[in-house]
Amino acid sequence: xxxxxxxxxxxxxxxxxxxxxxxxxxxxxxxxxxxxxxxxxxxxxxxxxxxxxxxxxxxxxxxxxxxxxxxxxxxxxxxxxxxxxxxxxxxxxxxxxxxxxxxxxxxxxxxxxxxxxxxxxxxxxxxxxxxxxxxxxxxxxxxxxxxxxxxxxxxxxxxxxxxxxxxxxxxxxxxxxxxxxxxxxxxxxxxxxxxxxxxxxxxxxxxxxxxxxxxxxxxxxxxxxxxxxxxxxxxxxxxxxxxxxxxxxxxxxxxxxxxxxxxxxxxxxxxxxxxxxxxxxxxxxxxxxxxxxxxxxxxxxxxxxxxxxxxxxxxxxxxxxxxx
Length: 324
What we know:
Low-confidence stretches: 1-14, 320-324
Structural class: alpha+beta
Shape: globular
Distance between the termini: 51 Å
CATH class of the largest domain: Alpha Beta
């Protein structure tokens, strides 16, 4: 049966209280689904298939770790303070992150090593991470969370980000949705204050036909009206780009974009883009995994003059001297 998709104009006319504002991460499956999708995408002759398989192993390790992970929850007083000031309920950029994330990092490295078949470069990277002291690791975590590109070690970043994801996904999975405040800032996760990685138009149940932007840190999904920029909240100058449309006619480009399971949604107001996937057309679509696996689409949209709204946490750009 073809699932019904609710169009943007109708979404705006509906009672907002009838639309689930958030979709909290499903603790038992969040990273497992990501791992499975990464493996699926790696088997489709992807140019970075080897890297996708490594990241699938990392996501699988995250799921096993999450099953027994139990980070300290914020106090009720802290939650209520953040609610009163419309702040993220467990902000990632905080001085009170604690050592739990570093413990998570070393456990993830243990799992990657136990899986075997480490390349010399990967073995060297794991050894380098283990040799870093707490201050150096925390400095990398701060740079990743604050998107300070010039300070991020691109090779180490995926593993550090993965450890941080375990901590904040654990927290998000145990937070009562009713406690999460509304934020005034567009494109910011109300749970942890991080930015989305991509968005998905879901099928089934209360989420049928609605678009959700998935946080790149805690995996919480926030409802966003379609044809609206997830970075600046503008509804002007929104366009969609799909693979195979470079040399197509305008009519064919429109048809390709309409039918594609994955598109890049660009905004002329802020000059950025994020990807959007349609579960109706690819049921196993997982925003984090599909974004990582679609570098060719990034190149296409970059050539059109748009920049990513934020880097993928598992694929940081290598900066040149001109970029720094």
